[in-house]
Amino acid sequence: MKTFREDFLWGGATAANQYEGAWDADGKGPSISDMCTNGSHTSPKRVTPVFEEGTLYPSREATDFYHHYKEDIALAAEMGFKVFRMSINWTRIYPTGMEPEPNEAGMEFYDRVFDELKGYGIEPLVTISHYEIPYALVEKYNGWYGREVIDCFVRYCETIFERYQDKVKYWLTFNEINSGTMPMGSILSLGTVKGFSGPVNTVPDEKQIRYQGLHHQFVASAKVVKLAHEKYPQFKMGNMTLFATKYPNTCNPDDILRCQKEMRNMNWFTSDVQVRGYYPSYSERFFEEYDIVVRKEEGDDEILRQGTVDFFTFSYYMSTCESADPQIRATAAGNLVGGVKNPYLKASDWGWQIDPQGLRYSLNEIYDRYQIPLMVVENGLGAYDKLEEDGSIHDSYRIDYLRQHIKQMEEAVKDGVDLMGYTPWGWIDVVSASTGEMAKRYGFVYVNKYDDGTGDLGRRKKDSFYWYKKVIETNGKDLR
Predict the structure, then answer these.
(1) The CA-based dihedral angle spanning residues 189, 191, 192, 194, taken in that order and rounded to the nearest 10 degrees
(2) H-helix or E-strand containing 217?
(3) What does the DSSP assignment read for 438-462?
(4) Which residues pair with 354 in a beta bridge?
(5) pLDDT at residue 335 above 70?
(6) What is the value of pTM for the model shown?
(7) In the annotation, is 378 catalytic?
(8) Catalytic: which of 61, 116, 378, 411?
(9) How far is 292 from 436, CA to CA, in rounded Å?
């Protein structure tokens, strides 16, 4: 019976805008995440076009990987990481995105990080753009709505590919690119919020702008994948999607068709383009229904065909149900998208429904569709962790969540899925992307940082640290 392969990539995941800090150090410019205030489970974070004195912008310091990278990588190595998912901060390389030459201090920082990882035999998995874009490109071009940003991104990729060609093998172009199908993606991914100021849940829902911006991201992604395949054959290029598994609320055919439509628009649309190399047929009706006209330039379709990815990666946290009945409200929260509550599932402190079997189901659905290697690059439980007087953190709830999901990953492997790795989200505590808070913790490592901005940034191992170390040592066999 199949189990995890011997070269399975066990590790953990982070993102520069939520982890790195040092927002203005050594020539770094502001990204859109640096313009977001803190928030909470009940009070949304805000976007401000200019910095407000006395307001906390949590990405400015985050949990300060910039000054703790040696300590943190040593902790990852102690757990036995085979892979370390991280992102490069675009504005650390090109502060406005438009400079003719890169910022050498920023380049040297990532040289040091990659060298540190190599010293421990850890493979970096680098997301090129993880929920950040230079704020100067937001102001000048309305983010990815401006086609000019494609060239800015390609130049950025040419720079990092050439510099780190002997240090990085695995690359992801855009984090959760399908977030651009939702209004929140205007802020997180697309940067199409020129002139906007206010709570993130009030950003205008301008589908025409979002889907045009998505097209430009598709073209940019395909161009750099094509570049990598031609010039750096040692690279493996992947996409990254937010997989929000959905079930029909009932066996009513209306619910089933509604669920199919939502799965297509939310989960399949962007990856169909990035993996198959063309817009899916069902997108035509969607565009017609919402009066969306995607403007393409000559050669765009050929670029999409030539720039398909080598492996598929995704985040998985929860599932929801879909109902065609307007009387049934969407009452379950989720990773940027909610839905109808499933009565068979429990939920996290943030209302995200816990569905380990949904991961097995999702892995099978994805692999059946694309038949390329898969990797779960985000998964985990955001929870309130209690720091005991003796410095310990007993997070049995997190261990149980991860145990159940790893079991289902193994079942998917037995089903025939080609699964290459697993990097649980926020292996060390980071700032929440959706709410801008620290209280929602995911990590195996606790960071002494709080929602009022206080804390000495000290690192402490949680119980889950030792548990995950054992999981890696046994290649997933010992989950006790």
Answers:
(1) 160
(2) helix 207-231
(3) SSSB--SEEE---TTS-----EEE-
(4) 346
(5) no
(6) 0.96
(7) yes
(8) 378
(9) 31
